[in-house]
What does this fold into?
Amino acid sequence: MNPLVLSQILQFGMQVFLTLPELMQAGRDVSGILGSTGEAIKAMVTENRGPSPAEWDAMNAMIAALRSELHAPDV
It folds into this structure.
């Protein structure tokens, strides 16, 4: 595998990995983001490519949604 592609895939995975402690500590269900990230990484490896802009956007949106739940006022 091209080292640049591998680096891009690792950056993608690390972005999710680094947010997990914060989200899990706050009691958020991270199974959805783990599943979708795993599927995206499998596709990238199979297709020998880095993450697409759409994949980055989707991952960032999932992280933002989980973080917004953390900071939402209790009703």
Notes: The chain has three helices and no strands. Residues 32 and 62 are 9 Å apart (CA to CA). The mean pLDDT is 89.
